Amino acid sequence: MSEESTEALPSVEELMQRIAENYESLPRQLKSVATYIEQHRASVMVDRTSDIAASCGVHPSAVVRFAQRFGFSGFSDLQAVFRQAYTNQGVSATSYQQRIRKLIDEKPGRVSGGSVAREFISACRSGLDELEAGLDNAQFDAAVKMLQQAENIYVVGVRRSFPVASYIVYALQHTPKRVHLVSGFGGMYREQIRSVRKGDVVIAISFAPYGKETQYCLRVAQHHQAKTLVITDSQLSPLARYASAQLYVKEGSAFAFRSLTSTICLCQALFIALAYKLELNVEESKDTGGYDD
Q1: Which domain, by its residues, includes 49?
Q2: Which residue of 92, 207, 264, 272 is most buried, as measured by CB atoms within 10 A?
Q3: What's the CATH code of the domain at 170?
Q4: What pLDDT score was predicted for residue 207?
């Protein structure tokens, strides 16, 4: 496959879908490369093969074999997929990361609080732009429909994801739905999720390295035939295999800290879309005489 024939190149999403579909059958070394590419989409187009290999703990030849496994003659041809996708975008996440590294290298210990704030705000803005560009309308609509039809909604998210789970529960409690936070207080995840059943929906939020408690709750939901909405950062996430619907979020990061801005925004959008649908149903029922005055 030649870099010059960009018309023949798949899109990034098409390539990542192929990788996700074949992930379980990949050798361990190639799985490491797949995970790296999924987590570093914005920088893959400029990363050196040797640097990727070092990050994955594999020989550079494994990176080349990975590209060949998916029909490319070499890794540079695979990179062309990402270059094509990001050519016309503005300031990419790569240039942002380079600015952060340069700032830390040039002024160690001398960065003002205001500078830190502005860099972090810039990261959040970049994450929101990526969320908007990559939002899957079909999956989002499917998620809203599931929540609309749910008898009970269970929400689970641990550690970094716990504030998001708490917010979703708070928001959804403003609807007529029965909503349950699987908090795990007292180590009682199993007890709090055990009553989930067919007709319910479990919302699971988790990002790398992915909470084991969240994965357990999804397995229970699947066993009891409940539907699941997974909010995660990768098609290669172990949560994805349990998803009835899935939404992906890539958060901006600065100084080794990832924000929650995009995830919170996505969850607020879910709540607003659901509340709109529920209220619309009420209004339609009123119009057809379904409610007594």
Answers
A1: 6-86
A2: 207
A3: 3.40.50.10490
A4: 84
Residue 22 CB coordination number (10 Å): 13
Give dist(CA 36, CA 55) in Å, integer: 8
- Per-residue pLDDT, 2: 42
Place of tokens 């494994």: 62
N-term to C-term CA, the chain:
69
**How far is residue 117's CA from residue 129's CA, in Å, rounded to a whole number?**
18
Give residue-wise pLDDT tens across range 121-166.
Answer: 887 888 888 888 888 899 999 999 999 999 899 999 888 889 999 9
Q: Please return the burial class of 189, using the count of CB atoms within 10 Å of its CB with bins 0-12, 13-18 and 19+.
A: buried
Are 155 and 270 in a shared domain?
Answer: yes
Quick check: pTM over 0.70?
A: no
Query: Computed from CA positions of residues 19, 25, 30, 36, in that sequence, does the dihedral angle turn out positive or negative?
Result: positive
Residues 167 and 27 both lie in one domain: no
Relative orientation angle of helices 28-39 and 49-56, to the nearest 10 degrees: 110
